[in-house]
From TrEMBL:
Gene3D superfamilies with a match to the protein in the record: 2.60.120.200, 2.80.10.50
UniProt keyword Hydrolase, yes or no: yes
InterPro entries found in the cross-reference section: A-L-arabinofuranosidase_B_cat, ABFB, AbfB_ABD, AbfB_ABD_sf, ConA-like_dom_sf
Domain named Alpha-L-arabinofuranosidase B arabinose-binding: residues: 378-519
PANTHER family the UniProt entry points to: ALPHA-L-ARABINOFURANOSIDASE B
Keywords: Glycoprotein, Glycosidase, Hydrolase, Signal
Protein's name according to its UniProt entry: Alpha-L-arabinofuranosidase B
Signal peptide region: 1-42
Similarity field: Belongs to the glycosyl hydrolase 54 family.
Domain called Alpha-L-arabinofuranosidase B catalytic: residue spans: 47-360
SUPFAM superfamilies noted in UniProt: AbfB domain (SSF110221), Concanavalin A-like lectins/glucanases (SSF49899)
TM regions (residue ranges): none
Organism (species): Streptomyces beihaiensis
Entries under Pfam families matching the protein: AbfB (PF05270), ArabFuran-catal (PF09206)
Length: 525
C-alpha cells in the first residue's frame, strides 16, 4: 500500500489557510455579484477552504477526482486489483491538485480493479468503505475503478459509477450532525446515469444500516423516483432523503412547478441544507457553467406522521444507497462534502464557481485518432451513407446525417472518446461524449449506448479491435468476443455482423463497405 500522506490538521497551517480562504471567497463572491467569472482553482479557493472561511467547516470531504482543500496531499481513494488482491492508494498529482489516474492505470494494468475506500480529506477521517448488509439489501460490492473516466482540470481522472448492488458507508464517524444539529452538503453527480429505484443518496444516515424512523436521515437524493406526487417533468430531481420519503418540500411533493428536474445534464451540483429544527433547502446547478437554483427553502416535512422537526440524525455517512441499504439505484459521484452548520448562500455560490472552474467533461485535447483519450466521430463509407455518422439515440446506436448545421445535441450524440479496450488494452472501447461512463456495447448483436457495470460480460461486449477496413478503405472493428463479427450499419441501425449468416444484418450485400468506417475529428467541440 502506498504511504498515507498528510491531511490538514496542524493549527497554524489551518489558520493561514482560513485567512487565504476568506480573502479568496470574498473575491469570488464579489466577482459573482458583478458578473465576472470566478477565479481558477488556486490556493485557498477549494470547497472546504471556502466553507471553513465562513465558519462551517467540512466534517467530510470525499472525491475521486481532486483535492477539496488547497493544502491536501493525502490519498483520495483506494483500489484493489482482481489478479492478486493487492491494494494501493491514489492521491493527487500535487498538493491541492487533481487525481493521479496514471497511478491507478499502472497498478491495474492487465487486470481489473474495484474501489474499496474513499478517503475523507477532512481532519475527521470519515473514510467510506464498501457497505455491509442492511435492513433492505445484502452487502454491497465495490464499484469498478475504470468505469467512469472523465476530464477534470485538464487531466484524465476517474469518477465513481454506482450500479445496483454497490454502495459505500461509514457508521462510526466524527463531527457529523446528530439529533437535530445543523448541517449542509453537496455532491457533484450526473443526470445521465440515474434510475427510479431507491436510493442514490449522499449524506447523513443511520448507524445500524436499518430504517429507524422519520428524521433519522438527512441526505441528498438524486434520481427519477417520485415518492410524493406530483413531481413535475421527468427528472432527475434533487430531493432530500429524510427517511421514509424523498422530499421536495414540507408536504413531500413539489410545490415548484418549474422544477422539472435537471434532465440529461452530464454534470450536476446537488445541494441540501438543513438546520435540523424547522428549515431545509434544496439547490442544484450545472456543474459545467452558471450558478445555483433554489428549488425549495422552507419548513421541515409535516407528512408521514411528523417526526422531522426536530430531526433525529444519527451521523453515519452513506453514498450510493438508502439508509437501510436499499441498493437498487444507479448514479455517478465525482466529489462531495458535508459541513458542520449551514453554509451561507454566498459560500455555496463560491463553491459552485469553483466547481465550474474544474471543467468537468471538457475536451480531452486529442482528436481524430484511435489513440486512447482521443475524441472522434465515426463516418460510414458505404456509397449510400457517406454523410452518416454513428450516434446514440434513445439508448440505441444508429447512423444518421450530421453536418455543420446539425444541432449541438446531434453533434454531441455523434462524438465518442476512445478508451483502452475494457476487456483488452490492445483494442478500444468508445465512451459517449455527453453520457459519461456510457459505452457502445452489443447485446444480442444489436449495439446500444449503456453504462459500464464492471462485469466481464459488459467489458467484452464493449471492446472492439481495429483492423484495416474490409473494403480496402478506413477501419473495421471486430467484436472482441465474436471476432468474426464486425461493427456494421444495416438499415440505419448498428450491429455486430458476420459476412453471411441467418440474421438479416449478416447479409453479404455491401458487407465489406458497411463494416468499414472513416475515423474523423469529433463533431462536438
Amino acid at each position: 500500500m502506498a504511504p498515507r500522506r498528510t491531511r490538514p490538521t496542524s493549527p497554524a497551517p489551518r489558520l493561514r489557510t482560513a485567512l487565504l480562504a476568506a480573502l479568496s471567497a470574498l473575491v469570488t463572491v464579489l466577482a459573482l455579484a458583478i458578473g465576472l467569472p470566478g477565479p481558477a482553482q488556486a490556493a485557498g479557493s477549494l470547497p472546504c477552504d471556502v466553507y471553513a472561511s465562513t465558519g462551517t467547516p467540512c466534517v467530510a470531504a470525499h472525491s475521486l477526482t481532486r483535492a477539496l482543500y488547497s493544502s491536501y496531499d493525502g490519498p483520495l481513494y483506494q483500489v484493489k486489483r482482481a489478479s492478486d488482491g493487492a491494494t494501493t492508494d491514489v492521491g493527487p498529482l500535487a498538493t491541492g491538485g487533481y487525481a493521479n489516474a496514471a497511478a491507478q492505470d499502472s497498478f491495474c494494468s492487465g487486470t481489473t480493479c474495484v474501489i474499496t475506500k474513499i478517503y475523507d480529506q477532512s481532519p475527521r477521517h470519515n473514510d467510506l468503505t464498501v457497505e455491509g448488509a442492511g435492513g433492505a439489501g445484502a452487502a454491497d460490492v465495490g464499484a469498478p475503478a475504470d468505469a467512469l473516466p472523465v476530464t477534470a482540470g485538464g487531466h484524465q481522472v476517474y469518477g465513481l459509477e454506482i450500479s445496483a448492488g454497490m454502495g459505500y458507508r461509514d457508521d462510526s464517524t466524527s463531527g457529523v450532525a446528530t439529533n437535530g444539529a445543523a448541517e449542509g452538503m453537496y455532491m457533484v453527480t450526473s443526470g445521465t446515469h440515474v434510475n427510479g429505484r431507491c436510493c442514490f443518496d449522499y449524506g447523513n444516515a443511520e448507524t445500524n444500516n436499518k430504517d429507524t424512523g422519520n428524521g433519522h436521515m438527512d441526505a441528498i437524493n438524486f434520481g427519477t423516483e417520485c415518492w410524493f406526487s406530483p413531481c413535475y417533468g421527468k427528472g432527475p430531481w434533487v430531493q432530500a432523503d429524510l427517511e421514509n420519503g424523498l422530499f421536495e418540500s414540507d408536504s413531500g411533493y413539489s410545490k415548484n412547478s418549474s422544477d422539472t428536474g435537471t434532465g440529461a445534464m452530464p454534470f450536476v451540483t446537488a445541494l441540501l441544507k438543513n438546520n435540523g429544527q424547522d428549515h431545509f433547502a434544496l439547490k442544484y446547478g450545472n456543474a459545467q457553467s452558471g450558478g445555483l437554483t433554489t428549488t425549495y427553502s422552507g419548513g421541515e416535512p409535516t407528512v408521514n406522521g411528523g417526526g422531522y422537526s426536530p430531526m433525529h440524525q444519527e451521523g453515519a455517512i452513506v453514498l450510493g444507497t438508502g439508509g437501510d441499504n436499499s441498493n437498487g439505484s444507479i448514479g455517478s459521484f465525482f466529489e462531495g462534502v458535508m459541513t458542520a452548520g449551514i453554509p451561507t448562500d454566498a459560500a455555496d455560490n463560491a463553491v459552485q464557481s469553483d466547481i465550474v472552474s474544474v471543467g468537468y467533461g471538457a475536451s480531452t485535447g486529442a482528436t481524430g485518432s484511435l489513440t486512447p483519450g482521443s475524441e472522434i466521430s465515426l463516418r460510414a463509407t458505404t456509397s449510400c451513407c457517406t454523410s452518416d455518422y454513428v450516434r446514440h439515440q434513445n439508448n440505441a446506436a444508429v447512423i444518421s446525417p450530421i453536418s455543420s448545421s446539425s444541432s449541438s445535441l446531434d453533434k454531441n450524440d455523434a462524438t465518442w472518446i476512445v478508451r483502452k479496450g475494457l476487456a483488452d488494452a490492445s483494442c478500444v472501447s468508445f465512451e459517449s461524449r455527453n453520457y459519461p461512463g456510457d459505452y457502445l456495447r452489443h447485446y444480442n448483436f444489436h449495439v446500444y449506448r449503456q453504462p459500464m457495470d464492471g462485469t466481464a460480460q459488459f467489458r467484452a461486449d464493449a471492446t472492439f479491435c481495429p483492423t484495416a477496413g474490409k473494403s480496402g478503405t478506413g477501419t473495421s472493428f471486430a467484436s472482441y468476443n465474436y471476432p468474426s463479427k464486425y461493427l456494421r450499419h444495416y438499415d440505419y441501425n448498428l450491429y455486430v455482423a458476420g459476412d453471411g449468416g441467418s440474421n438479416a444484418w449478416d447479409s453479404t450485400s455491401s458487407w465489406a463497405d458497411d463494416v468499414s468506417w472513416a475515423v474523423s475529428g469529433p463533431w462536438a467541440p
